[in-house]
Amino acid sequence: MKAPVDDRLDALRGSAKRLDYSARSLAALENNPRCTLRALLDASGSDKAAIAAHAGHPSPFGQSAFALARGNVFETMVKDNGCAELLRLLRETLQLTLPEVGYEDLNDIGGDGRAEVRHDRTKQVLLQAARGNGGGTLFDHPMLCLPVGGHKAFLEPDLVAFRIGGRFHVVEIKSFPIIDGQADPTQVRAATTQACAYIIALRNLLARVGIDKQAVSDTIVLVAPKDFTNRPTAAFVDARKQVAALSRQLARIERIGDLVDLLPEGLTFDLGLDKDKRARRPAEELAEALDQVPATYRPDCLNHCEMAFYCRSRARADSSLDVLGPAVREQFGGIDTTTMVLGLAQGRLTPTQDQVEMAAALRHAARLRAELNVLGGAE
């Protein structure tokens, strides 16, 4: 029997097919933990891309076909011949002792690629390895399952999980380069956060049979091209903080009923799809529904959320400081809008007790700017 909160989430989604969580969508929860709109759309399984497009703010979200193809080619090279290149990296670059290696491909089981079948086999071989009863060291494309908000989320790592020294590690294979030992911090963070979903799912699998979570390391192995070549290199990345942050967000999803209870009665994001999957609901009506849910926009939402352009437009219309990013927002504690900032700076607004110090700093900055403008004009 469904819980009342599930019925309410179904009503939010409406007639559209439910979209399940993926590692990418779970990682996005950690990137913007304060956004209620994102949490509700994901928990209800709503199609964020379709909703944003119908509301008038389509997003070119997702990887390009070229990037996907390049990533697949690089991953295939790393895993070719039983992960020979990966083994070289583990032994030479990371100085790991792997005297004997067993490799198991979990892409499909006897020609059966269904998620449930692959998950059952993944569970079998990983538990055997954890108990020391199996010969597997490397596991290619294991199919993990993580309960999220009462629903099963099947997570298929485009990686290999390996076991050494009694602990499993997650390997993320990415096609962005590591140049002179450095990679783009934004891309590294995205890869690490996505890997955190796999770490949590693997820990959940083992915990069900009483195996401590420490059996899964929260240090991931990042494999990427070295410099401007296609030759791979590897590095350890500490993911402890992000694992903890994503765990908190998953706990928040379990309490999604608290957010649902705050919604207006009858609220829905249903597009009213016809038999040809075309939205019939007026775009203005959909926008009004979306506007009834708090959204927290940040500039980096453009990298990971389909609703980003819609939320940016909304934040700009509200003169929200969110459009300037969290660093600026934090500097103006207790002040929410650019209108309020300018009003305090120009002395047109009377500051509250909590805003007195900030108001004085803003008026001082305004005076300096005015003086510089005068000097510039004199020249």
Features:
alpha/beta, 3 domains, 11% strand, 14 helices, two-stranded antiparallel ribbon, six-stranded mixed sheet, 379 residues
Mean pLDDT metric: 87
| Overall radius of gyration | 25 Å
Structural class: alpha/beta
Give the N-to-C terminal Cα separation: 77 Å
Shape: globular
Describe the structure in your own words.
The model has no long low-confidence stretch (mean pLDDT 87). This protein folds into three domains: 4-62 and 264-329, no CATH class; 65-250, no CATH class; 332-378, no CATH class. It is built from 14 helices and eight strands. The chain has helices spanning 4-13, 23-31, 36-43, 48-54, 65-93, 115-130, 185-207, 240-254, 256-260, 283-290, 308-317, 326-331, 338-345, 356-378, and strands at residues 103-105, 138-140, 144-148, 151-155, 160-164, 167-173, 219-225, 232-238. Helices cover 47% and strands 11% of the residues. It is globular, with a radius of gyration of 25 Å. It is an alpha/beta fold and 379 residues long. A hairpin with a 2-residue loop joins strand 5 (160-164) and strand 6. The strands form two sheets. Strands 1-2-5-6-7-8 form a six-stranded mixed beta sheet, with helices on both faces. Strands 3-4 form a two-stranded antiparallel ribbon.
In short:
Helix content is 47%, strand content 11%. It has 379 residues and is an alpha/beta fold.
Task: Summarize the helices and strands and which ones pair or pack.
Layout: H1 4-13, H2 23-31, H3 36-43, H4 48-54, H5 65-93, E1 103-105, H6 115-130, E2 138-140, E3 144-148, E4 151-155, E5 160-164, E6 167-173, H7 185-207, E7 219-225, E8 232-238, H8 240-254, H9 256-260, H10 283-290, H11 308-317, H12 326-331, H13 338-345, H14 356-378
Parallel strand pairs: 1-2, 6-7
Antiparallel strand pairs: 2-5, 3-4, 5-6, 7-8
Helix pairs in contact: 2-7, 2-8, 7-8, 13-14
